[in-house]
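Section 3.1: Structural characterization of target chains.
Under the original work plan, the team committed to producing a structural model for every single-chain target entering the pipeline before any wet-lab resources were allocated. The record below documents one such target. The sequence was received from the expression subgroup and is listed exactly as submitted; it comprises 269 residues.
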Amino acid sequence: MATFGDGRNLTVGELDSFLAAMPPNMAQAARRDRRAFVQQFALMHRLSEMAERAKLDQQSPTREALAFNRMYLLMNAQLHEVLTTINVPPAEVQSFYNARKDRYTQVKVKAIYIRFSADQPAAGTPEPKHLTEADAQAKALKLRAAIAGGADFVKLVKENSEDPVSAAKDGDFGTLRSTDNLPDAIRGAVFALKQGEVSEPVKQPNGFYLFRAQEVAVQPLAEVQEEVVNELKQAHFKTWMDDVTRDLNLKIQNEGYFSAGGGAPAAGK
């Protein structure tokens, strides 16, 4: 697709390979203006040839920078090769899933939220008086008793819940998994419920929740297989890295190097 002044041909394949090796932001800019990139590539090629003829690659600090970059790139290539070629047998995936089914339990819940506040509105203002913590807890307990007596949960949501988001959806609070980032009190209450049960009032900083478990189920392996495989791959990769690190058998000969001044090694060290 282009020819250098010395007669050397530049192919599309060569450019594509070069682009694939570039940092993403640089490659994106190069693809936006391919003509400028080809010009830049030709200039880089010429300047690097000039540097090699001048033996700049054998002089400091270029020599050390080239050695470092080569080592760094090879290191990452090896890590990528190991991680992408790890094979996790189906039996191991199944065994991992079977032993940790509680992690994949999910509960679809509805909620009623009763707010409380220690700060009361000033006298004479139109804002209604807030419930105290004790009053909010008592109200939540009363609602729970009503539900146990057969009261309609959704009706109580509409009449009492002060969480506008879930109240607008008939109390739907979402489907929660034990691995979700939840407050401990909510996690403990929700995942102790059986289908159809309602929790005791769960205190949060500004109110009490009543949770009802609409559905309790375990996600099938097919839904979480990719997650399980990735976790097992990471575990195998860590084991491999630990083995490589252990095999280094590194022995420090000059502890003075780690002092504040970075002590020079003794003669012959």
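The CA atoms of residues 143 and 257 lie 69 Å apart.
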